[in-house]
From TrEMBL:
Pfam families in the cross-refs: MarR_2 (PF12802)
Domain HTH marR-type, first and last residues per copy: 4-139
Residues passing through the membrane, by range: none
Name of the protein in its database record: MarR family transcriptional regulator
InterPro entries reported for this sequence: HTH_MarR-typ, MarR/SlyA-like, WH-like_DNA-bd_sf, WH_DNA-bd_sf
UniProt feature coiled coil, ranges: none
Xref: SMART domains: HTH_MARR
Species for this entry: Glycomyces niveus
Top-level taxon of the source organism: Bacteria
Amino acid sequence: MSDRQELLSGMAVTVFKLNGQFLHVAEGLARPVGLTAAHWQVLGAVTRTPLPVAGIAREMGITRQAVQRIADLLAESGMVEYLPNPAHRRAKLVTATVQGREAVRRIGPAHAAYADRLCEALGDDRAAAVHRLLRELSDTLERLAAEEDGR
């Protein structure tokens, strides 16, 4: 295996592990308010701006079917509602209700405390640099995928 293949594999394995670690943290933060990490993820995507299911899926990097299932569960529990979408008649917009925004707000203190612990452990400058590098990696992967799709 070439050095570049080793780098790609190492990045992928590390990101897979990080994903699991972040999901574990998110589960711990969301559970006390009666949510799962997946519920919080979808709610968080629509707390400020309504989005169609496909838009949430693209933003979060999960399947449209998974988002639809979670959005339907959240709608049944009164956390989100579906609104007409002026841009697309069949793809309704998902938006957080007052109850959904309140649930996300209740996660806030524990979320802030964990963010403080993490940033203190890494240092604020290094935490910001990690975030920039992860965004850059994501943007690059997105660009490469778009180039492949455009072949």
